[in-house]
Amino acid sequence: MTKRKILVTSALPYANGAIHLGHMLEQIQTDIWVRFQKMRGHECYYVCADDTHGAPIMLAAEKRGISPEQLVDEVRTLHVADSQGFLIGHDNYYSTNSPENKELASQVYKALRADDKIAVRTIEQLYDPEKQMFLPDRFVKGECPKCSAKDQYGDNCEVCGATYNPTELKNPYSAVSGAKPVLKTSEHYFFRLGECADFLKQWTSGSSARADGAIQPHLQPESLNKMNEWIEGGLQDWDISRDAPYFGFEIPDAPGKYFYVWLDAPIGYMASFKNLCDRTGLNFDEWFGKDSHTEMYHFIGKDILYFHALFWPAMLNYSGLRAPTGVFAHGFLTVDGQKMSKSRGTFIQAKSYLDCGLNPEWMRYYIAAKLNGRIEDIDLNLNDFVARVNSDLVGKFVNIASRSAGFIAKRFDGQLAGSVSDMEILARLQAAADELAAAFEAREYAKALRDIMALADVVNAYVDANKPWELAKLEGRDARLQEVCTVLINAFRLLTIYLKPVLPKLAEGVESFLDVAPLCWGDAQALLLGKKINAYQHLMQRVDPASIDKLIEANKENMQATQDAPAAAHEPLAETIKIDDFAKVDLRVGKVLECNFVEGSDKLLQFTVDLGFEKRNIFSGIRKAYQEPEKLVGRHVIVVANLAERKMRFGVSQGMIVCASGTDDGEGLYLLDVDAGVKAGMRIG
């Protein structure tokens, strides 16, 4: 087998809070893949880091009365503990606030500037006169310029879905100080992304040849389709600078100007690997040089695909470095069919899971059993979690060892039989190695684990057919008892090899039990015969459903203050209108034909709505309230049908879907229902 050289990263957690299970999904997916590659004998490194720069970090540190450096150091310690608690085997976990990252960010910038890919323009921004700082879009709030909804962010309305510049807000105010912002001009630095379209068309649709001869597409099919839409829609130049005060790296030769966090964050992958190279003697240039023959893969969430599949490869290419071999995007994690919720106790922090005494390998197995190579959301159903772990890991897998090891220890002094006649079952398990390897390579973990558990069923059927507990009672059947138990121990070892990327700690326990060196994938081609093994120690207990109740309670937001508080005043009525004013609004019943998430937006859903006489494309800012858009298909909604078309970054919106809105930051948005019997196109009013 040809040895491959592989560098793997997962997205950098932002240094403003604890890691929750949604974040851990990605690290688990990445870690399983890396462990599999190492078991195959490849040279593989997994690096990551905390994403530490930006105005939010600066302001959060200021609020606590500490320096940004102190804050990011504190958070990094927590993040490392969370990752280690879930058995994530980073080869290096670093920080973007590092000397290596500062040096590399400057090198990339200077190379882009030398290639005429940097432009300088004067732009107009909102400025907080009290805080004396330019305000990022998310730090400006006001009334939506389209629908007049109050307390909307400076880039997007969560009520009507409109996108706009913060300067378009009505009655804007600073979310930092509450002051009324003023317009102020400033020079900003831009990466000429629009000039990179030809390269990006080629790269996004292209592939790379691996050292083993396999062809690796750069993107998944779903990612490629989305990138084509964005490229064909016209790529805009990317603002890569921010003004002081800002926590980040100052741009070379531009005093008071700082790199925008999204420029130096992905370079943090390089910096973390550079730090590893300096510590271990690896040749950094061999991995990041333009003609590198190594492989580089990024595991990311679908919400940051735009940055990793467009900005990042373009930055690398035009600064004289290699582009990624592959970008692997995954979907989001829901809990019990809904987005994670603090009030329901399902916004589960990684640390809380561990503090409640839950085995991290239970969660690693359950998440892996749901993951595939496509961009699909997965659901953590807590009842199913208990049932599947108890059934698969304890009832099917660990049960094989517990029902055979005792006889080997007590009756044969720990000695396995020197040969066995029942080779068919072991040969069947050995023959599965290549197909299971292909599934792990393709990140089709759900398929791999289904197949492994199907093999465990075969082994358990062998247990029931040969009944070692019955053989132990019969005179003169010791040889057969030793043979049957040796077959079972070998079957258990083979299954452990296949499960080791998912269950590394349990695999260590099995290696100790069998008194063998760390198991590799190639070990599946050999059997363990005539060897003395150690006494069996319990490897895994069942999940107690009560521990799940404890976990939910531990993660519930304290609602008492909310319950004791006086009821909020109703939002004031709008200005009185006449019947003629209302008659100008054409409300129609629409039937939802399609509904999807909008890549690059954490607020919008994209609807295809049948109005009876025509189909409309409508963007609506209700994503926070409806995390399973496919469930809206077939539903009737109310549409403002005569609203002027609005050109948005993601396309043209041809109407507005009417919602009732609450005051809890987007979770109180509700689609309005109509009675049964209505038809698409019916007018309301």
Largest β sheet strand count, sense and barrel closure = 6 strands, antiparallel
What is the helix tally? 22
Per DSSP E runs of 2 or more residues, the count of β-strands stands at 28
What is the architecture of the largest domain at the second tier of CATH? 3-Layer(aba) Sandwich
Fold and architecture overview:
This protein is α+β, with helices and mostly antiparallel strands and 685 residues long. It folds into 4 domains: 5-117 and 192-330, Rossmann fold (3-Layer(aba) Sandwich), CATH 3.40.50; 118-189, Methionyl-trna Synthetase, domain 2 (Beta Complex); 382-525, Isoleucyl-tRNA Synthetase, Domain 1; 579-684, OB fold (Dihydrolipoamide Acetyltransferase, E2P). It has 22 helices and 28 strands. Mean pLDDT is 91; it is low at 558-572 and 663-667. Homodimer. Residues 581-685 form the TRNA-binding domain.
